[in-house]
Every structure is written in C-alpha cells, then in structure tokens.
Specification:
about 350 residues; alpha/beta; 3-stranded antiparallel sheet; 9 helices; 19 strands; globular; binds iron/sulfur cluster
Length: about 350
C-alpha cells in the first residue's frame, strides 16, 4: 500500500525482531501501552499511525483538527493558573475506544479510513512554530493538548511544548493516561499540568467499555504526580455502570492515598453520546453521592462537572471552608488579594497560581 502524503515519520517505534523472513518489515509502536505490532500497510489501534514499507508513520504529525482559545477551567483544571486562557489544540484518533466517548467525531476513525488510510483527512496543516506564535498572539498563558488523546499526536506535541516553554508558555495535557513509559519520559519536563481521565476503578470496565487496561492508567497518573506535574483527575459518572458505592470508594481511596488528598477530583455527569446514545444522562443524585464519597476519603477539592451552577463548583479553603475561588461554569473569580490563599484565614490552597 502506498503511503498517503499526510503521513510523516513517527517517533518511538522499533523494527520487530524478525521471527521469519516474511516478518522483517514488521514494526512495533512504542508510543502507548497498546504497543501495536504492525505489518506493512497496517494501521495501529489509534488509526493514525501506520507501517508503510517497514517504517512507522503518523497521519497527525503536522495537522490539527481543532483549535480554540478556552478558559483553562474547561480542561478542566481548577487549580492551575485559574482565570487564564489555554490555547487548545487537538487532532484525530485515540488509542482507547470508549463506548461513551464525548468527542467521537474526532477521536474515532471510521471503518473506511481504517481500511484505506488515503481517506484520512487529518485537518489543517500545523507546526510547532505556528502554534506557539498563535498562542502568544492570543494572550493565552498555556497550550493545552486536548480534544482527542494527545498521546497520538506526540510528535507535534513534543515539538510544540519544547518551543512553548522557551517562549514562557506552560503546557497542559488532557489525557487518558495510556501512554507508554517511553512517551511519559519524553514528555516529562515539557508538561506542567494534566487532567487525567480515571474512567472507572474496575479492570473489567476498562477492558469491555474502553478496550484498555486499568493498571497502566493508575501507574501513569501516579508517575505524573511523583514527577511534579500539577494533576487533576476526572471521572465521567455513567449511571448504573461505574457509580457503584464500592467502586467509587476504591477510586476516591486511590486518589486520597496514592496521589494525595490535595489532588482535585472532577466528577462529571455523563450525557448520551457515541455508542451510548440510548443511555440516559446520569441523575444528579449519582454525582452527589460520588462527591460525598470523595469527602469521606478526605479529598480536599471535589467538583461536579457538566452541572453548571452546582454548589460544588467553587474552591473552598481546606481549613475553614470559606470560598477562595468563586466559580460559575468556566468563569472564575479569586476572592482576596493573595493568589492561592484563603481570603478568610490565610491558609494556602494547593495549586499553581502564577
Ligand atoms: S499510539 Fe498506541 S494505538 Fe497507536 S499505533 Fe502506537 S501503540 Fe498502537
């Protein structure tokens, strides 16, 4: 199969040790925990990396499918430069296949594209210099790699993040935390903040609903916290699927004990999407039960997502419970003069404030 023009050389792969003469052009992608083994003409699980003539190429190394200037709260990150703008970029493809994907229009490639890579339309041409220049011009404080899974556009993200840091911008990943160790190491030092999905605490849920494994997700989130990234965690609560008391208990316990009670947890309400269009939106009471579960485990900052106007939107002081950052939807207002301190008792609030 001929390589379509949009495919450019990929990083983080290796030739497979040939088990026979006919396998000498097989490659293994080392970008995410799927570690796809690909024969010539084959695309990986993400649908945007493929083996052409014994080398790995990416369809999204120089293209973006979505570009927006978003409040950083939309990522969501509530304790990282609150009130600032994040120049947000995304491409095509995802290494997970969640039945409830809220962004399937860009994350899940059609069967036709998977069969015939020449049909992939990766979006508009983009490069690191152009992205950083546009971000600086927009007044953003950061660049967010988001919308689809940024691991799959690693090459463009790595180049852009390096340049962004040199120009005084921070870098944010909004990710499913399913990257490989090699990918994580390559990004460490380039990324300052992440919102990681923790979709469930059940290995079975990850396997059947997302076509992935839970353990690497937990490992990567822990590694990011340990490396000093500012981390917030999001769980999309789907009524009847991942909202059982025992599961929520284990998940909140993991955040409290393995990540730290100051790591914010966003408990987000599911709306029907992708392969779960027939499932109703999660009842608000389920979200509130999850919030209570987080409180029981001593999490200091728990927020309801996809519920604008909910009482849990604002950031409260962990010592005296006074409102420290008042929030409505994506609008944030710091109360008091010192960023990151309670205006009432002066207690420091965990986060990155400048
Ligand atoms: S990024 Fe992941 S899913 Fe895509 S080809 Fe590489 S290992 Fe496979």
């Amino acid at each position: 199969m001929d390589k379509p023009d949009c495919f450019t050389p990929a990083r983080l792969w290796e030739p497979c040790p040939p088990a026979g003469a006919d396998q000498s052009a097989t490659v293994r992608c080392r970008l995410c925990r799927r570690y796809c083994r690909l024969t010539p003409g084959q695309l990986g699980g993400c649908g945007v990396r493929g083996n052409f003539s014994g080398a790995l190429y990416t369809a999204v190394g120089g293209y973006l499918a979505a570009v927006n200037l978003d409040p950083v709260e939309k990522k969501p990150l509530f304790h990282f430069l609150p009130g600032s703008l994040a120049f947000s970029v995304g491409s095509l493809g995802c290494n997970l296949h969640c039945e409830f994907c809220q962004n399937s229009g860009i994350s899940q490639l059609s069967g036709a594209c998977r069969q015939n890579p020449a049909l992939i339309k990766p979006g508009s041409r983009a490069d690191a210099h152009g992205i950083v220049k546009a971000a600086l011009k927009s007044g953003a404080a950061s660049i967010a790699y988001t919308y689809n899974e940024p691991t799959v556009f690693f090459e463009l993200m790595q180049d852009t993040a390096g340049l962004a840091l040199e120009r005084g911008l921070r870098n944010i990943m909004v990710s499913n935390a399913y990257m490989s160790g090699e990918c994580f190491s390559a990004l460490d030092g380039l990324i300052q903040a992440a919102n990681f999905d923790l979709k469930s605490f059940s290995p079975e849920f990850y396997r059947t609903r997302c076509k992935a494994e839970l353990a690497p997700v937990l490992e990567n989130i822990k590694a990011a916290v340990k490396s000093g990234w500012w981390v917030e965690v999001t769980t999309l609560i789907i009524g009847g699927l991942n909202d059982g008391p025992a599961e929520l208990d284990a998940l909140a316990g993991f955040i409290a004990n393995e990540l730290g009670p100051e790591v914010p947890w966003h408990v987000s309400r599911f709306h029907p999407a992708y392969l779960m269009r027939d499932r109703p939106a999660t009842p608000v009471e389920c979200i509130e039960l999850a919030l209570e579960c987080g409180q029981k485990h001593g999490l200091r900052h728990i927020y309801a997502g996809n519920l604008p106007g909910h009482a849990s939107e604002s950031t409260l002081c962990p010592a005296c419970s006074a409102v420290t950052l008042a929030r409505h939807g994506y609008r944030t207002k710091a109360l008091g003069e010192a960023q990151g301190r309670c205006p009432s008792c002066g207690q420091a609030v965990a986060g990155v404030w400048e």
